[in-house]
């Protein structure tokens, strides 16, 4: 494997890269949003007159949309602006555009909004104080309900030797991409065009079409360089407003969030309460009961897949003969829930791993041994009846166990060593297409995704093409095109870029090699190599330069083309187990076992992470430096989820820490040395047996840290994050 | 953020004249800007004029026998890297190191920290236990005032209209320490902190707490409980009790009252230990 230099590296390091938030185009206006002053209320009046009185200012709200979008055919549940009711604080009510940023802000302030307050649903515990001991009777707050069961759960609990029941809580967290959301829109000749910092140009196009009520074919989304996404830039956010302002003004309009706005109206995750009950007989889990309350904020009815997906992770990767799971997506007056790297899996894993550690301690078995005994192995069935495909987690856990034993022997007083596992289903299922173009000097991958930072697009896809064709990676180039000219792809999310779009690239490469084989009149596909600076197609002893075998037409357009697509399929679950709602099958089984050594201050509750080790099943690793970087970044980010990151909401659903002063991500000073190892031999559904690795590294981190804290000082903390104060409470200091 | 003018007067007199020329609340003073800029960005202050002190000759650090005078616009990093500060006033060194990050300390100033008077200031408590004084320069001349009397409350000081902090004078280098507790060890705000110093000249301890509103303050009951120059474990425990009993600790979103009270004892004990060991903190 060649170590590939990052083509985007020099410009990013030197500050030359133009990210979405850096974009300015000639003649553009500056946009600003008018935001709801309350979390819930009825709009009594909205007056744009004073804003429009400023010279050069355009101001729009709900009433203006029909005039801007003729024959609107959008989703009635997703209007760009609310007409009657606001349902979260800082919900955009109107938008303005002006010749300068200062004037735009002034005009936004000049918009007069009168809102009659309505009762605010803020906090899960306040809404359902008796849960989980009593059922939820008020259906008006429930955006989605999922329920499934298998076997005689009550009897199993009744007859079990040991039952352990615990409640866990997790805080909402924000993605904290370095670059806030930003876009520049322009509407000309019936084309609605927006340059946007997005993880998914095609997804943003689809969302924007639905919100504005115009056909997707009229919209072009052109992805800019992305300063981090982490799930927060997967759906449209600012694009519809910017496009409406551009349409209203006839000028390009830039709309970008400040960092405080990013916290307030970006799509962050929200709090949860998790009830875990486990029945054990003779050291074996006989039944589990898992219940979840998930705050989904201002959720739209029928759109919640969060709960059904999240709950799949609450049973953990463990054999479970009988179970009952029930989840409620609870609507509150917070902004809509959004995905964050491995949505809800770090939180679910924290709960299930901590809980099973409690269970193991209760029955007197070493927690790692207890987990290893119950872990799925290839060929097993998940609780929902899905067959487990090659799965390296048991092997990873054995490596983790050996490391933990070694570290524990050397650990000084007040130090503790923790172990936890996490699993993930990488989204190789979502669709993607790629086009290749081979010239005498290079192979170009034409696709519609911007590199969002991990290297999965620029390096991951190139490595796939390089590996398949035999060309050195320096001869492979990725060419980005906007959504009107690129092959379709679902987006850079769900750890799917290499796994799914990579499959499309691989298929295109296979098709290309087959074409070349035919041109060589060989009995099978060719491979590629470089001779005297020129790319040569090879089969056996036959060798011909590309320049000799391309057609005149190919020479004219610049190369020999090939196409590939991959629309993968997930596995299947036993639908007979489902009582209500939707549960989701996994598409691939990936996992990691992590080890942490921490030092806990017994008087203050402060936790210092001393060292960390991560053992990952990533299938076949396509690019080792990128894979290691993903694990390092995921662990560092997970340390924030584990120890410091937390959105703090007031009773009236106001975000109290909308900034990096009181929303604390780890600094480099808190990231310990990280040992990384990939367990091999468990191929996945991606190209060459690759599995996705964008999300798995963050998943076990909070559970691992909690396990290490418990080992260090006995404090069993059941709420994320493990802030010093929560650990101090666990130590009974407070 | 509404438009404003930035002026950088070349002399203290011009700076004072600039402040006087502006109406009440119309001008703000800019030193390092690491705190002020957030208020400007979020429109918590809306000045018409920002008076920058960057051209004033106040980036000074002068030792004079036992006393140290620090110019108000000297970046904190210069205090931190002065070997004499570290050796002779270890608590000041530790407190300066507690502020933000190295990059931020290249910009932030002692005068700015004092003038902005944040409830969780890491520098005011150590200045309190060092009995530091503030030299002010204003329309009616110079005056000197104790830090304890200069700091009035959260974001409130005794600065009169048109007045500037010229320098901060620490009359006596003392064995001292500054211990803090936070969620994140660096680049964070202390939600509880204890500063301790021992004055050989007066044979007396000074103890201050910080991290909660409205302002950092001295706790004489704890000082008395520590007693003589070599307090034993019991004296330290009594002092911690006195500190927990007399410090007006309150809760805010950064920490509960109960947790803050719990923190008082280990922070005070560690501060006294640090002084014995000749270090300024952790």
Condensed summary:
Chain A is an alpha+beta fold and 734 residues long.
Describe this structure in words.
The complex is a heterodimer of chains A (734) and B (282). With 734 residues, chain A is of the alpha+beta class. Chain A has three domains: 202 residues, Alpha-Beta Complex (Aldehyde Oxidoreductase, domain 3), CATH 3.90.1170.50; 313 residues, Aldehyde Oxidoreductase, domain 4; 135 residues, Aldehyde Oxidoreductase, domain 4 (2-Layer Sandwich). Chain A contains 20 helices and 27 strands. In chain A, the strands form six sheets. Chain A has a seven-stranded mixed sheet, with helices on both faces. Chain A has a six-stranded mixed sheet with strand order 8-13-14-15-7-24, with helices on both faces. In chain A, a hairpin with a 2-residue loop joins strand 13 and strand 14. The longest helix of chain A is centred in the last third of the chain and has 23 residues. Chain A is globular. Chain A starts with 8 loop residues before the first helix and ends with a helix. In chain B, helix 11 runs antiparallel to helix 12. By secondary structure, chain B is an alpha+beta fold. Chain B starts with a strand and ends in a 5-residue tail after the last helix. Chain B folds into three domains: 48 residues, 2-Layer Sandwich (Uridine Diphospho-n-acetylenolpyruvylglucosamine Reductase, domain 2), CATH 3.30.43; 110 residues, Uridine Diphospho-n-acetylenolpyruvylglucosamine Reductase, domain 3 (2-Layer Sandwich), CATH 3.30.465; 102 residues, CO dehydrogenase flavoprotein, C-terminal domain (Enolase-like, domain 1, 2-Layer Sandwich), CATH 3.30.390. In chain B, the strands form four sheets. Chain B has a five-stranded antiparallel sheet. Chains A and B meet through helix 20 of A and helix 12 of B.
């Amino acid at each position: 494997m060649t170590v590939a230099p990052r083509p985007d590296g020099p410009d990013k390091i030197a500050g030359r890269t133009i990210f979405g938030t850096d974009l300015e185009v000639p003649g553009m206006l500056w946009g600003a949003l008018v935001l709801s002053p309350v979390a819930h209320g009825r709009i009594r009046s909205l007056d744009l007159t004073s804003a429009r009185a400023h010279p050069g200012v355009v101001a729009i709200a709900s009433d203006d949309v029909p005039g801007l979008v003729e024959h609107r055919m959008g989703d009635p549940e997703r209007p760009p602006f609310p007409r009657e009711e606001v349902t979260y604080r800082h919900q955009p009510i109107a938008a303005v555009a002006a010749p300068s940023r200062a004037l735009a802000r002034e005009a936004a302030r000049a918009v007069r909004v009168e809102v009659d307050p309505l009762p605010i649903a803020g906090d899960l515990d306040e809404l359902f104080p008796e849960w989980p001991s009593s059922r939820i009777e008020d259906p008006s707050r429930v955006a989605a309900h999922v329920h499934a069961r298998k076997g005689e759960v009550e009897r199993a609990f009744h007859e079990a030797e040991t039952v352990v029941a615990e409640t866990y809580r997790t805080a909402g967290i924000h993605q904290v991409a370095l670059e806030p959301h930003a876009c520049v829109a322009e509407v000309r000749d019936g084309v609605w065009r927006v340059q946007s910092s997005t993880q998914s140009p095609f997804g943003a196009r689809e969302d924007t079409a639905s919100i504005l009520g115009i056909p997707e074919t009229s919209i072009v989304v052109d992805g800019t360089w992305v300063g981090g996404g982490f799930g927060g830039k997967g759906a449209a956010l600012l694009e519809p407003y910017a496009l409406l302002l551009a349409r209203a003004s006839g000028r390009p309009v830039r709309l970008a969030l400040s960092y405080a706005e990013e916290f307030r109206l970006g799509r962050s995750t929200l709090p949860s309460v998790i009830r875990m009950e486990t029945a054990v007989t003779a050291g074996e889990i006989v039944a589990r009961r898992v219940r979840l309350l998930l705050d989904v904020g201002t959720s739209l009815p029928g759109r919640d897949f969060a709960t059904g997906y999240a709950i799949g992770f609450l049973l953990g990767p463990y054999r479970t003969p009988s179970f009952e799971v029930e989840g409620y997506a609870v609507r509150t007056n917070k902004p809509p829930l959004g995905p964050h790297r491995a949505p809800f899996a770090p939180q679910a894993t924290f709960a299930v791993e901590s809980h099973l550690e409690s269970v193991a301690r209760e029955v007197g078995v070493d927690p790692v041994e207890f987990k290893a005994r119950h872990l799925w192995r290839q060929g097993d069935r998940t609780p929902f009846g899905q067959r487990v495909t090659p799965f390296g987690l048991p092997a990873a856990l054995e490596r983790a166990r050996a490391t933990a034993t070694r570290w524990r022997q050397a650990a000084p007083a007040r130090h503790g060593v923790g172990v936890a596992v996490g699993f993930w289903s990488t989204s190789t299922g979502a669709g993607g297409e790629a086009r290749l173009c081979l010239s005498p000097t290079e192979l170009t991958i034409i696709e519609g995704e911007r590199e969002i930072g991990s290297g999965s697009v620029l390096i991951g896809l190139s490595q796939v093409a390089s590996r398949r064709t035999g060309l050195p990676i320096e001869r492979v180039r990725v060419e980005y095109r906007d959504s009107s000219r690129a092959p379709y792809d679902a987006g850079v999310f769900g750890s799917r870029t290499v796994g799914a779009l990579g499959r499309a690239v691989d298929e295109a490469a296979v098709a290309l090699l087959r074409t070349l084989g035919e041109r060589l009149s060989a009995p099978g596909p060719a491979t590629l190599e470089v001779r005297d600076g020129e790319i040569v197609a090879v089969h056996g002893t036959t060798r011909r330069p590309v320049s000799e075998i391309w057609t005149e037409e190919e020479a004219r357009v610049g190369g020999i083309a090939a196409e590939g697509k991959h629309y993968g399929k997930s596995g299947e679950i036993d639908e007979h187990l489902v009582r209500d709602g939707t549960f989701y099958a996994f598409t691939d089984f990936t996992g990691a076992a992590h080890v942490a050594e921490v030092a806990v201050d017994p008087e203050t509750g402060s936790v210092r992470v001393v060292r960390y080790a991560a053992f990952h099943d990533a299938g076949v690793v396509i690019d080792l430096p990128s894979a290691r970087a993903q694990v390092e970044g995921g662990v560092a980010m997970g340390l924030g989820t584990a120890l410091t990151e937390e959105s703090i909401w007031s009773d009236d659903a106001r975000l109290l820490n909308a900034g990096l002063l009181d929303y604390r991500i780890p600094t480099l000073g808190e990231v310990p040395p990280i040992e990384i190892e990939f367990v091999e031999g468990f191929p996945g559904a991606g190209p060459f047996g690759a599995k996705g690795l964008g999300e798995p590294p963050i998943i076990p981190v909070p559970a691992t840290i909690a396990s290490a804290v418990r080992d260090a000082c006995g404090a069993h903390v059941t709420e994320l994050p493990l802030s010093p104060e929560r650990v101090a409470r666990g130590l009974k200091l407070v | 953020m509404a438009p404003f003018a930035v002026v950088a007067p070349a002399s203290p007199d011009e700076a004072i004249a600039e402040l006087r020329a502006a109406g009440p609340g119309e001008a703000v003073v800019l030193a390092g800007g690491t705190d002020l800029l957030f208020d400007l960005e979020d429109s918590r202050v809306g000045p018409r004029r920002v008076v920058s002190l960057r051209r004033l000759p106040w980036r000074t650090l002068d030792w004079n026998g036992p006393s140290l005078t620090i110019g108000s616009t000297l970046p904190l990093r210069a205090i931190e890297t002065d070997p004499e500060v570290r050796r002779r006033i270890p608590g000041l060194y530790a407190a300066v190191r507690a502020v933000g990050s190295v990059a931020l300390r290249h910009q932030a100033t002692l005068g700015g920290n004092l003038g902005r008077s944040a409830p969780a200031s890491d520098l005011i408590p150590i200045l309190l236990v060092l009995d530091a004084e503030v030299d002010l320069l204003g329309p009616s001349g110079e005056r000197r005032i104790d830090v304890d009397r200069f700091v009035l409350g959260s974001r409130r000081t005794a600065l009169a209209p048109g007045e500037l902090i010229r320098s901060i004078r620490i009359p006596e280098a003392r064995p001292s320490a500054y211990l803090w507790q936070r969620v994140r060890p660096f680049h964070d705000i202390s939600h509880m902190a204890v500063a301790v110093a021992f004055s050989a000249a007066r044979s007396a301890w000074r103890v201050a707490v910080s991290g909660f509103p409205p302002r950092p303050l001295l706790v004489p009951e704890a000082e008395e409980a520590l007693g003589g120059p070599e307090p034993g474990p019991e004296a330290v425990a009594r002092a911690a009790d006195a500190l927990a009993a007399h410090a007006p600790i309150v809760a805010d979103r950064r920490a509960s009252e109960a947790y803050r009270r719990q923190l008082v004892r280990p922070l005070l004990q560690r501060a006294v230990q640090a002084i014995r060991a000749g270090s300024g903190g952790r």
